[in-house]
Amino acid sequence: MVQTTELRGDIVKKLQTCGTQSTPQPQHAEPSAAPTEPSAAPKTSAPSRPSTGTSAQQTLQLNAPYHCNSSTTLTVTSCAQQVGKEYCEIELEQNGKLVFKDVDLRAQVLAGVKSCMTQAASSQATQAAGKPVATIANGKSFNPPYLNEMPSVGRVKEAMKTSDPRETALRQIWVFYELAEVIRVLSGNREFARTGMLPDEEKIIGEYQVAQYKVGQDADKAFPNNKPSEDLTYHFNRWDTKFGFKGINIWQFFSEDLQSQFTQIIGKDNAQYAALRGEQKRIAAQGVSADAQAGTPSSGSPFIRNDPGTLAARRCVELGGNALECVGKGLWGGFMDMAGVNPDEMKGSETSGVIMNGPYTSGAGMTVSFGAENVSINGCGKLVPADHAYTVTKKPNQLLINVKSAPNSFVFSMGNDGKLSGPGPIDIDGQIISGYRRVWMQRYHNGVEVPGDGYWDNQPIYAPKTERCTIATFAQAPTPPPDKSPLTGPITSAIETMMPSGPTGLRMAGHYTGQGGLALEFAVDAVILDCGAAHVKQSYAVDNTSNQILITVKNSASAFTVALQPNGTLAGSGSTDVAGRVVTGSNGNGITYAARNARCAIGILTAKTGN
To answer: The domain containing residue 145 runs over which residues?
Structure first.
């Protein structure tokens, strides 16, 4: 959770600025030595869109909109430190209207910006290509070779024909989307590489995109009251097991070898995904999926819409999330799908296993605050808070936390009382603020410079420094009182909703799956249980016993305990009942639900690896 006054104040300032629909943009800086504040703001030029080069992926331009496509922009409005972690506020606009606002870790925001710029570059390449090549035909020699299996536009349109003109158009629109997605998946890391995909890959994707656009335009003119291009019945993201099967059988064009490559990349050797995809293949072979109304989503909900935004929002409310949290997840999920990105891929390699969480204080002015991967040290001389990687090791009768600081690492040991004991005086490398520079922030309204309107801002200048600090005994910091300020309270509450802080101490992280069908998704505040079509969010506890770490999932009347094994798996016995719910619709009082119950064996649960 982001709780510091500095961050709240910075966000409040930016929200107040947004209330006037104006956007400040940094223009130029001057040294801190005796700056002169002019009576009128200097005239400056309007900001240009950030570069798509490598440097832009490492830095963020505040309040300069990143244009993802002709209708969507992503803007980073502010960034601030919270116990050594940097959070940034983002705004998403479509057609000039604000549709989403969120606060997230800087690394996550950087990944979103990178996806946005990748989409923009792809769009520019397609536009620059002009008229596409005549057709895509099997048998031609493309690089890489898998492209030789991509069907021609004419063949695809013919294969999607039905007796209903609107149904035909609907299938043709989304088949071209899915075919382009197949290329993006099979291109591997090239999809997000700075150099982009290979020329033949870009060329064929461009032709499919043009075909999709033309079919959509013609269909919308024929059916203006029920536009096929806005109908998401057959819009599935690449990770949905119905992709390529439900209503649109794209796999008829491809060899078993290519289909296997696609499954391995998307499923990442996930046996459960492969099994579910095999079931979709069986259904498609029987012709059941030819009817748009046939079958129901794997979640058990009767809704037909399966776009990523709807799926994310629906799962969120089914797990008990509130409107703010679930609308935000839905909009962000939809935006990431529009950019062709799996949000899970943005997170990098996933942390799994036991972690530390929350702040600890020495009582002498020093604090250490743990996150899933790093610990921030605050109050060490004049050093600014900084992150240090750490690992947790369980040994008989002790638990050790190795902090990888420079010039030397040090170790905390956790006692039975939950307190942390350190090595005493040590040297720690870091940075201090050596001065400030003055930066003029030009104000913009709807992307247009407001002459003479802006303000001066102070930006720190950093210098390296080594401090000698005493790392002694640290106890859990007391829970801060609730923010009752009418100005900042709602913002603090919103941040806690989107990014719960969870209890201080030992926690778990990662996704775990078992052969019995049970899946556990750990966060610092709770764990999500998935079993068949049922899912539910429950609390859990982590206990440091003398010889092992035990995790107790407080699953209502079906609680269970698993033990963390030396190989990283979770071991339990018996089975557990998961009592969840799915959205069925709405009435005058709000959303309606139906119960979904399932029972799964516990057994051995293995952590998801990779991204």
So the answer is: 132-347
